[in-house]
Write a structure and sequence with these properties.
It is built from nine helices and no strands. The protein has 247 residues and is mostly helical. α4 packs across α5. The longest helix has 40 residues. The chain is elongated, with a radius of gyration of 28 Å.
Length: 247
């Protein structure tokens, strides 16, 4: 109790000392004023666009990049190994994020060179910059999207058959790309599960033949799965195949 009273008195004395010295304290204000020129309006629009992009950034990273496939496959690996908390979910998501940046680096570099830098240099306007920024993302998604999924959304929207890929709208490409990524990720996850499932079934049959039915097979098979995964350098193989799946 005395310690709390001392701390409270210390903060009161410190506040009195600050105000006695009349130290300037910062104040943050926001206001709306009349624009004096066209540049002021453009700066305001750029700020609004930037805030909008920042608010949508998580959805953009998840849905329009390679993040979905990588995150699902790594979670399949974790479940197949049978380890509940190793590696932690934060580490899996962090690895997925950095692998996404690695895979998307050529696309992001094109966006920077063809759209962002020319726009900042006032060589192109906002609309042209947006079109140039969307083009690399569009090309990446089309490379990973199956024609079957594209046809599904074209039929669902009752659109005429496109003559070229340039006739496809982003509202058609994006959902087709997402379900294609989900399908690819689940196929890779199934292939990852197969060898670990064989180990689980073998251990379970051995325990049944020995009459040890009360012993959980997962408890016995986990060390064998970990040994197999380490011996074949599993993380290297999985990451290598993930990266190759985007080419």
């Amino acid at each position: 109790m005395k310690g709390k009273i001392f701390i409270f008195a210390f903060f009161i004395m410190a506040a009195q000392a600050i105000f006695a010295q009349e130290m300037p304290l910062p104040r943050v204000t926001f206001g709306v004023d009349k624009a004096q020129s066209v540049e002021d309006v453009s700066v305001t629009l750029e700020l609004v666009a930037l805030l909008t992009i920042l608010s949508l950034a998580p959805s953009i990273v998840i849905m329009l990049t390679s993040f979905t496939r990588i995150a699902i496959v790594l979670n399949f690996v974790k479940q197949a190994l049978g380890t509940q908390s190793a590696p932690p979910n934060q580490m899996v998501m962090g690895l997925s994020l950095f692998l996404t940046f690695f895979v998307m680096a050529p696309t992001f570099n094109r966006i920077n060179e063809e759209a962002i830098q020319p726009y900042l240099a006032h060589e192109i306007d906002y609309q042209v910059g947006l079109d140039k920024a969307i083009k690399p993302i569009r090309e990446f998604m089309l490379r990973q999207t199956s024609e079957h999924d594209l046809a599904l959304f074209i039929r669902a929207a009752r659109l005429p058959n496109p003559n070229t890929i340039d006739d496809l709208g982003m509202w058609t490409i994006i959902p087709a790309f997402i379900i294609s990524e989900l399908k690819t990720a689940f196929i890779i996850g199934f292939l990852i599960y197969v060898p670990f499932l064989v180990i689980d079934m073998s251990i379970a049959s051995i325990l049944m033949s020995m009459g040890m039915m009360m012993l959980p097979p997962m408890m016995v098979s986990m060390p064998f799965k970990l040994i197999l995964f380490v011996m074949v350098d599993g993380w290297n193989l999985i990451i290598q195949q993930l990266l190759l799946s985007f080419h």
